[in-house]
Amino acid sequence: MRSSITKALTLGLITTLVAACANIGRPDGGPYDETPPVMLGSTPAPGATGVHSKRVKIEFDEYINIENASEKIVVSPPQQRQPVIEAVGKHININFEDTLRDSTTYTIDFSDAIVDNNEANPLENFVFTFSTGDVIDTMEVSGAVLNAENLEPVKGMLVGLYSDLADSAFTTKKMERIGRTDSRGRFCIKGIKPGQYRIYALNDNDQNYMFSQKSENLAFLDSVIIPSSFPDVRYDTTWVDTVTIDTIIKVDYTHFVPDDIVLKAFQEDYKTQTLLKNDRADKRKFTLYFNTHADSLPQIEGLNFDTTDAFIIEPSAKNDTISYWLRDSLIYNVDTLRLAVTYTTTDSLARPVKVTDTINTVTKKTFERKSRRRDKDEEEQVIPSLSVNLESLTATFDGYKDITAVFEHPLASYDREAMHIMIKADSTYDEIPFNFLPDTSHVRTYLWVANWEAGREYKLTVDSGTIRSIYGLTNKRIDRSFKIRAIEEYGMIVFNIKGLDGQPAYAELLNKNDSPIRKVTVEDGEAVFNYLPAGEYYARLCIDTNNNGEWDTGNYEEKRQAEEVFYYNAIIDLKAMWTIEQDWDLHAIPADKQKPLDITKQKPEVRKKKTRTRTYQGN
């Protein structure tokens, strides 16, 4: 034991001294090393066959380091126990922990992980290959992995091949050949035997090289791929400087295909619905919070009160937060309400089942109310009113919008005749027709809907006591003046969509943060955006397969891809009074080249050049 420790310490000391010697500075003003390391030789030789040793040693012309080995180095076929790969002086030593497989091509793809010790100049795209059999398998396939929802390149995702074409292989067997995506989402899998394969991408959380957890992001191609190659020619350019071409060189090479695979990654809708908590900050309302969305509302049974017509339900858009407004004071004045909440979840086999949770919902104001009771008679009594949020109604209003009012509580009644919308005509105001309508998606939201005239001034008035909540509170008087934007302040964008093939779709305009600011349904191959302020816009389109107006993820077991998304490849600079009409062929540009770089968050990584300062000393 003592001998082993001594050897380890000695090796560590030697390594440290070697590294220190390799980093000795050059004289001030001397030339800088900008040349990457060069491989001088290896054991076994590159491309060797009949290899049985589990050790590989690669020699370089200078001292080297390995950067971000776990992120950049990919060993294929995948290993149960990862090889030990280390840089020692001018060598890289690789020790395989797993037993080498018979008649198998091994590739160790270093990407740009190998750098020289002085200036960290990378050796780009370095791959070491050997075979335990008689031949080296040389086929390659390449492509990109994108986020299915927003076409962002996905970095660090595992991509693998199966010669077993059964759908179950991805969930029961390890990948046979693998690669990993870089910062551009690009991947390349090398050392492939001729044949037919299925290809998958996986965010392999448990590192078992198969899709085994619903939380793992995945991607799959519907079709089988057949790797092949052919001789090809490319032209490389050398430059005198950044603007002057030196030489154009014709290069013969082997072109491996397919090299344009696009995999679109998604996470399945896998979460099992669970009731997280309940809240009753206002005694007249309790709220249930679930961990994920649901297709239907839970069933509520009152254990110490009658739930028949007891409340007005206010669900969130995804039914994951649900408020219940209690109508009856005999119920909401009870400090603790006991409920049985029945909702749908899944069992261990992912089958839908009903579960019932029994909860107590306690008003938070119980103790606060008791502590204030003795001072209540001394306080000046203030008659409460029904508050209303009219934040959407700004002094300058967009003519394509409705006036939105969000009330403090659900409404019981209102007097339509006591509401007025008037348009200014010279020095007087004339009444115009309008509708006051409930928003079908939001219980406490109502809309004033009218035909607005651009550039005109309006006034909205609502008499006090006109609107009454279910708790008997009424509104204060509303008196708001506003002006509709002039038509000269707007522009319009029209997309003529090609490639839909009759499928339902919606289009969105995006800002520079890739966030949607306007959505329209595509009708008769057109996406029309009216009343747009001048500015810069981007656009994307979603094939809305189930016609629900939102993007839906995929499911591997059902062999259902996520709904397809396309990006318009350019920025649109809209000026006031302009109408921009654009043809948009959804399939004209490959998916991995559609999204403008300006709004792509996962930018390609570029090595930063070192700032080098020379110091000259006088005599």
From TrEMBL:
Biased composition (Basic and acidic residues): 595-605
Domain of life: Bacteria
Pfam families recorded: Big_5
UniProt keywords, alphabetically: Signal
Sequence segments annotated as region (Disordered): 595-619
Signal sequence, start to end: 1-22
SbsA Ig-like domain span: 33-132
Official protein name in the record: Ig-like domain-containing protein
